[in-house]
Structures are given as structure tokens and as C-alpha cells.
Amino acid sequence: MSAALSSSPSALPPREPTSPRALLHLLFNGARALDVVETALGLGLLDELEPGPVTLGTLATRHGFVPQRLYKFLDCLESLGLVQREQPTDALEDTRYRGVAGLRAAAEAVLGPRALERDREKYDWKALHGRLPEVLRGQHSMSAASFDWPPRTPEQVEGFEASMAAGLGPILETFRAHAGALWPSGARLLDVGGGDGTLAEHLLREHAALSVDVYNLPATEALVTRTRERAGLPQERLGFVGGDFLREPLPQGYDALSFVRVLHDWPAEVARQLMQAAFAALPSGGRVLICEEFRTPERLAAQFFWSYFLIGVDACSSRLREVEFYLDALTAAGFRDAHVRPGPFELVVATKP
């Protein structure tokens, strides 16, 4: 067995960067590529490929596949950079494959039945498709009926908050990993722009001594009430404070204050002002928690839909920024020990002296 395939998945040799031409070939065949990955996920092939190595002959026998056809199917996965192949002999059945680390979980997250990308399909992105030259020249825009920012109608508010709740999985994973260091026992947390309270509900289920108030526009109160009643939580643990953080000081009386996917939706100066408002609202020793869309290649790829969709929406800035922007702004606001805690969504934490 080769060294590459006998080592752990994380030790696989690095893949050569995809050339612009190869990338465009794959993008043009995007629908067919997704068909291949969805099929591999549905058939359970990814469960066998990711630990690997596994031979083509073994896969063909287990699943009743025609070996020559399976070989070409696996070529498709290899072209996408999702599997690596070693062919020690001319016999197709001897060809060995291994999926890249995290392949099964990634496919489920992006293509599974509850995938965030499927949720995004409900937005009217087709209003821009094929008309980008007009959109870029300001001659065509997304209609307010399709998307308005901030959301104005009850239907828009509910739809937007539902989309935000659908993407909470990796954020919750990060909070779980670090929760013991984020707030003291018996803490009160203010979740600024906390949507329909779904994040608060999950945190409350896992931390019996915690209480959370969602601070959001009054139009979202009914959504938070629905979340609280569905979860069977008392109002003392999951509360709601209505307000507008663009026009009012942030409420006081909390041990910690969180911004989760909030600050990137506003110009830099507004984001800085909100961090300063957090400093003013927190007591000495209080913590601010920022879980954001930081600007990394991975996050840009995950945000491709919104980058595309919001080309036609001038009211929403939605700027992915480098994490240093938040670290510097928190320090300038007066916080100390601003640092990044790792996770699927990195978490910036800082403390008021």
C-alpha cells in the first residue's frame, strides 16, 4: 500500500491548486457534479470512501455496480477534489480510493434534506439571473417585494429569521465547545439581533443556570414567543426586549452580550458603534461575544449565494471582514483580552475591565 493511502486522511498529500480553466470546466458542469455527489451521499459511498482506502472492486461488489461505470463515476468525484485515487495495476478492480477528511459531513451539510443551500432556494435569485450587466449598471434591482432590508412585512421578517435559524448548526457547535468560558454560572445573556430565539433556545437547553433575552425589532416578538412556547421555557429564562440598536442604547443588566451574524450587515462605522454600545451597556467583567462571517476562502464560498443575491440590493452592505477588524475595534472601544476561539464559526470574545 502506498504511503499516501496508508496514512490518516488528514495526512493525504496536498492537492494541486485548481487552475482557472479547470475550475470553469467544473462550474459549467455544476448540475452534473451535484448529481454525482448527491448520488454518492444517498448510496452510502461517502461513508466507505472517507475512512478508506477502499478498492473499486470492493465497492462494486458491495453495491452491485458495473466496475467500469463505477470507475468513471469515481473519476467525477476525483475531478472535484473529493477523493484521491491510486491505481497500482491495470486492473480497475484494484484501484484504491479515499475520500478527503470531512467529506461525508460536508455533503450532508450542503446537499442533505435540511441543507442551508436548499433553504436559500426560496429566495428570488432568478430575478437577477441573466441580467447581471443591467444589475451592475444600476438599471435593474431586486424588488422590495422579493427582498427588503431591513425586512418590513411580517412575511419577510418571518422568512428571514427562519433562514437565519436554519444556519445555526455550526454556530451552536462553536458555542458548545467554549460555553464554559463564555459566561459565569447563573449568567444573563443579551442576544442582540437574536432572530426568532432559536439560538437562545438551544443554549438554554444545554445550560440550566443560564437565562437569555433576545433584543430585536418589535416585529420579531411574536416569533420569539412562539419559540419559547414550543420549547416549553418560562419567560424568565427566554425573554424578549424590543428595540432598535441603530437608534437606542443597548439594554443594561446583563453579564454577557452577543452579536451573532449581525455586525457584517452594516457599514464599518455602524459596526464599531455597536461594539462601543456593548461596552457602555456591560458591567465591569462583562463579556461581548461576536460570532461572525469572517472573511476567509471557506466563508466566501459558503456565502456565495448571498454575495450573488445581494448584488441587486443596495440597502444591505453585508460585508465579510477579516477578523482583525473586530479585534481592533473591540480594543479601541475599551475592551481587554480580545481573542478568537476556534470552531466552525470562530468566536471573538472580549471583556470589559
* Rg, nearest Å: 24 Å
3D shape: globular
Helix content: 40-55%
* Strand count: 10
The CA-CA distance between the termini, in Å, is: 58 Å
Which structural class fits the helix and strand makeup?
A: alpha/beta
Tell me what portion of residues adopts beta-strand conformation.
5-15%
Mean pLDDT: 90
Would you list the SSEs in sequence order as H and E? HHHHEHHEEHHHHHEHEHEEHEHHHEE
Placed side by side, the strands forming the largest sheet appear as 6-5-4-7-8-10-9
Low-confidence segments: 1-12
Helix tally equals 17
The major sheet is characterized as:
7 strands, mixed
Short description:
With 353 residues, the chain is α/β, with parallel strands linked by helices. The chain is 43% helix and 13% strand. The strands form two sheets. The protein has a seven-stranded mixed beta sheet with strand order 6-5-4-7-8-10-9, with helices on both faces. Strands 1-3-2 form a three-stranded antiparallel beta sheet.
